[in-house]
Amino acid sequence: MRARVSWTLVLAAYLAFPSFQRERVEEMGYGQIFRIKRMRVDPALTQALRSRWDAEASAFAFPWGHMIPSLEDVSRITWLRVYGRAVSGYTYPCYHDLAERLLDLLVERRSSLVPRVALQESLGLFEAGKNAGESEDEYLARLARVSQRELASEPGPQADLDLRRFLVLFLGRLLFATRGDAVHCRFLPLLEDLGEVGGYARGAAFLAHQFDGLSASERQTSTSGFYPFLQVWAYLHLQFLRRGDLTRSGLVPIACRWDSRRDTRHLVDQLERLQEVIDSYPYLDVVWQPYLGEGDEGQPWLVQARPYFGRSVWLHSLNLVLPLNLFLTQRSMGLRQSVVEFPVRDRFHRPGRSFRGLHDTTDWRERAREPIENWERKGKGVR
């Protein structure tokens, strides 16, 4: 529920902006994400996916093999830019001076967090609570009206201040959300020059953040960040789960087309049923190419990024550097024989993890020519 409320608050501030500010957000590459319908949260699906996450391999371990969200998934589903400058740089133990200069907000000494309430109020979001009997649309419209009174109506220093505050709220409470109430300042140094914001590969950083959240403590059942991404990813690739409804066709980003299916059963019952379905469905029911027929219009970075869609790469998000192990998925599923392999450290062999430890990619092209049947005879292929 907190993720849905954060989405409503960020969307209200975006709608309250005058047209020139919304145009700046569009130029930065974030405009399309605000066209996504406020999707219903599906905690059962999130927990089912999270329980399948293999932190050692940084991929989902399903009975049929490994699967992992890709850069193309991020671009198609969210419309975030996946090609550009790496979101890399320093993180600081204290952002007091930088927050005071760029946000005109108080951050405690030796702290990296902006108080959420103070940040919301700086954007005019004073009464963030929903009134009794108020519909979602009425709630959103009221927040936008109140916020509009506090925002600059003309370009200038105050408008730049409003935009940075909005971006910190958007990045810290929605796109790169973390557990807890405060908003982290780690992206603030990259917002000093607003003209450079649109050149960063935020989609790649977003994917790194998703992987980091999935690899957090096993006691956590939810994930942080922009929750519609993983839900729509499952709707597209694991359609046999029947958790999503395709309510609109032809819209972009693809997340605009989907909504989560309402399920009135108890969460425990939903989760048990999902696990049973995942365990019993065959390999052929997985959708491997959900974007056939989709064009590249409006996403020039797709052409630039396409050479990286089929490769194992490193994803950067400031102090996070995490692997996108597409080769592991491809070999695990028998789709290709190019792979970055990982050792098995536990006492049992999960499907798709029966490879010897290897992190040298110099000779994979030779091994790729070997027929899949040979790997299966040797006990190294998909069961």
TrEMBL record:
Gene Ontology biological process: meristem maintenance
Keywords (A to Z) from UniProt: Signal
One of the Pfam families matching this protein, by short name: PMD
Keyword tRNA processing listed: no
Domain Aminotransferase-like plant mobile intervals: 31-303
InterPro entries in alphabetical order: AminoTfrase-like_pln_mobile (IPR019557), MAIN-like (IPR044824)
Segment forming the signal sequence: 1-21
Protein name: Aminotransferase-like plant mobile domain-containing protein
Organism expressing this protein natively: Colocasia esculenta
